[in-house]
Specification:
Layout: H1 8-11, H2 54-71, H3 74-87, H4 100-150, H5 157-174, H6 191-194, H7 202-209, H8 219-225, E1 228-235, E2 240-247, E3 257-264, E4 275-279, E5 293-301, E6 308-316, H9 338-362, H10 366-371, H11 388-398
Antiparallel strand pairs: 1-2, 2-3, 3-4, 5-6
Helix pairs in contact: 9-11
Organism: Thamnidium elegans
Family: Belongs to the nucleosome assembly protein (NAP) family.
Biased composition (Basic and acidic residues): 185-194
């Protein structure tokens, strides 16, 4: 299902949230208007260049003069670019010019497409129902995992042996015939080791192993995330899902559970659920422990009395916990410029992707991220759609 879910950035016009989500009319109008001037010159001569006539040179001179006129007149250039911009997305007139018989057949195709969309919507509904069904089947495994991590349950000898067998089979698959088998050093537990409860810092370790999420975790965050003992996901009655982060008692906040909910639009488009918005939660920080702000102190001297005073102010600081304060979508009546809209699109997309990462990968395969095995099967690089650069700067540009 999730490969078929579209982000708001591609489905909603931030500047006009009530915008039309249907596909645009086929057209010949170019998406990007051609530049008025260009410094580009071909490095390899075209065949016609060998036979260039004086008239061609004259035309080139006229073109150059015209380009120069635009360059020297920014107001005229801006006006023309604005006119070209208004043409983007408009029908070129091709459809209207078609013969009536062709238009009739085109309407027949539109009917077929509408029937196809109905089936796509039904398919998506059944996929969602199947995912909900299997989440219920997965849940006992997740509950048992949480008990092992927190130390309230010890795996049986049979379960441990089965887990070791899985490791051995995977090692055999990855082992090269020419590689010599390395002997495993058996670690002998000390008395202190035997007193360890569960798997300490399990969730912090796996989050730091994730190539993108680790970029959002500061040194100050780590101490709080050591108390993260479980991450859960659940579906809602309406399209969307909820993430819950459970914490043990800690020095930073009083919440036992921090939550974040992702909502899809009520109606799927083309069989795909479209992301609508996310809602976080309020973190009840203990006094002086808010990780999302830094307290700056500054001394000020009064010119008249020469007395000094200390002024304190809080400024936003990078923190993983901004995840629970998602970017807000402006009201339909609120107008924002194009640059702000594009920036908001990027923030919303990054926030949505992070939620999907927890839902589809981290929660189902937590132990593989803890051991690092999951990274062997992920293609994380600079060209990946899951853009680390967005994650590293989202807090800076949003807060």
């Amino acid at each position: 299902m999730d490969q078929h879910i579209e982000c708001l950035a591609s489905g909603v016009d931030i500047k006009n949230k009530s915008g039309n989500l249907t596909a645009p009319t086929p057209q010949n109008t170019p998406i990007n208007p051609a530049p008025i001037t260009s410094t580009y010159r071909p490095s390899i001569p075209a065949i016609s260049e060998d036979m260039e006539s004086s008239s061609t040179k004259g035309a080139a001179d006229n073109t150059s003069s015209l380009a120069g006129a635009f360059t020297s007149n920014p107001a005229l250039l801006s006006m023309l670019q604005g006119k070209l911009g208004t043409l983007v997305g408009r029908p070129s007139g091709y459809i209207d010019s078609l013969p009536t018989t062709v238009k009739r057949r085109l309407n027949g195709l539109k009917y077929l497409q509408s029937k196809h969309a109905d089936l796509e919507n039904k398919f998506q509904e059944e996929v969602l129902a199947l995912e909900k069904k299997y989440l219920l089947l997965y849940q006992p495994l997740y509950d048992q995992r949480a008990k092992i991590i927190t130390g309230t349950y010890e795996p049986t000898e049979e379960e441990v042996a089965a887990g070791e067998k899985v490791d051995d089979e995977e090692d055999d698959d990855e082992e090269d015939e020419d590689d010599e088998e390395e002997e495993k050093e058996e670690h002998k537990d000390t008395k202190d080791d035997k007193d360890i409860k569960g798997i300490p810092e399990f969730w912090l370790t796996l989050l730091k192993n994730h190539p993108q999420i680790t970029e959002t975790i500061t040194d100050e965050d780590e101490d709080a995330l050591k108390h993260l003992i479980d991450v859960r996901m659940s579906y809602m009655d309406q399209p969307g899902f909820k993430l819950e982060f459970e914490f043990s008692d800690n020095d930073y906040f009083t919440n036992k559970v921090l939550s974040k909910t992702y909502f899809y639009q009520d109606h799927a488009y083309g069989g795909d659920f479209v992301y609508d918005h996310a809602e976080g939660c309020s973190i009840d920080w203990k006094d002086g422990k808010d990780l999302t702000v830094t307290v700056e102190t500054k001394k000020q001297r009064h010119k008249g009395t020469n007395k000094t005073r200390v002024v304190k102010r809080t400024v936003p600081s990078n923190s993983f916990f901004y995840f629970f304060s998602p970017p807000a979508i402006p009201d339909a009546e609120e107008e924002i410029d194009e640059e702000e809209a594009e920036g908001l699109d990027a923030k919303l997309e990054a926030d949505y992707e992070m939620g999907e990462e927890f839902k589809d990968k981290i929660i189902p395969h937590a132990v593989d991220y803890f051991t690092g095995k999951a990274l062997q099967y992920e293609d994380y690089d600079e060209e990946d759609d899951f853009d680390v650069s967005i994650y590293t700067c989202i807090i800076n540009i949003l807060y």
